[in-house]
Amino acid sequence: MLAAQITEFNAPLTLGQVADPVCPVDGVVLRVLACGVCRSDWHAWNGSDPDVKLGQIPGHEYCGEVIETGAQCRDWKVGDRVIAPFILACNRCPSCAAGHQTTCPTQAVPGFTHPGAFAEYIAVPQADGNLARLPDSIDVTLAAALGCRTTTAWHALTDRAALAPGEWVAVFGTGGVGLSALLLAKAIGARVICVDIVPEKLSFAKSLGADHVVNSAEADAPAAIRDLTGGGAHLAIEALGIETTTRAAMQCLRKLGRMVQVGMPAGKHTEMTLPMDALYSGQLALFGTRGMPGWRYPSLLNMIDAGQVDLSPLVAREITLSQASDEVAAFNGLTPPGVAVITDFSR
């Protein structure tokens, strides 16, 4: 099959033929229909993630069509259209039994610990517990864009932070995660302020329904948010994984506010100096989140299928597999609004 591989960190992906995946006995092989290009792929590409070894195929935001099933796979058949979380759980351990598949100690993560979906085909283990059926009404390009950013944002808002209608949400970073958080929070009935340093991204967020936008390169974002909300946000979503925005997210909250760390801290940002006085005096609650269990997919997919939220503006451009390398490298700088999705795996 044709695939793009990381053969050198911080260098163009190598496009070429590799062996087709072997079907797991409890899993499936998918023909990849679409795969998003995510900032997390950039962390893999630049060597920030210790799980990634050279020769890895990146790509963890994917949907596909089942072309082969293992002998122990019961729920899926050839021809089914499916979507998978980027954390593939064992579905047997105590964490999985409790519904916390994202904390599974033996999890497989395509593009990091296992071959990913920048390829024509991908193998998915434990398919019965990990895959979700993709409704016919949801386009595969949009479905791929949901695979990491939108599902992570949905889990952060609804499971970790229990967002309520009418609350103020401050979203730091307007990439795929941030825009997903904006659209989903508005659908829940919250009021949203988006923070970024790129005027084009802030204008885009405003066009998608943000109540206010703040350019943190030109203003004190926490002070502006406290002023706009009459005391501070109820919830802050940090969607970049860097110290500057994590500090600001904590400082923008009102008393008893909540913050969810959605952005992945990597490299120098794995260690941060944070305003613990704000945590103490504000009696804040800080949450970490990573991915979303497969069993929660229907709650999001049904919402989209029913027309309660339109996530199609997330997709900015469709690209070929050979163009993925440039898209990943673009995260070295300031990227344009929206998500790139690979839809052509033939070249």
From TrEMBL:
Record carries keyword Metal-binding: yes
Protein family: Belongs to the zinc-containing alcohol dehydrogenase family.
Keywords: Metal-binding, Oxidoreductase, Zinc
Name listed for the protein in its UniProt record: Zinc-dependent alcohol dehydrogenase family protein
Presence of the UniProt keyword Glycosyltransferase in the record: no
Pfam families: ADH_N, ADH_zinc_N
Cofactor(s) listed in the protein's UniProt record: Zn(2+)
Gene Ontology terms for molecular function: oxidoreductase activity, acting on the CH-OH group of donors, NAD or NADP as acceptor; zinc ion binding
SUPFAM superfamilies listed in its UniProt record: GroES-like, NAD(P)-binding Rossmann-fold domains
Origin organism lineage: Bacteria, Pseudomonadati, Pseudomonadota, Alphaproteobacteria, Rhodobacterales
Span of domain Enoyl reductase (ER): 8-342
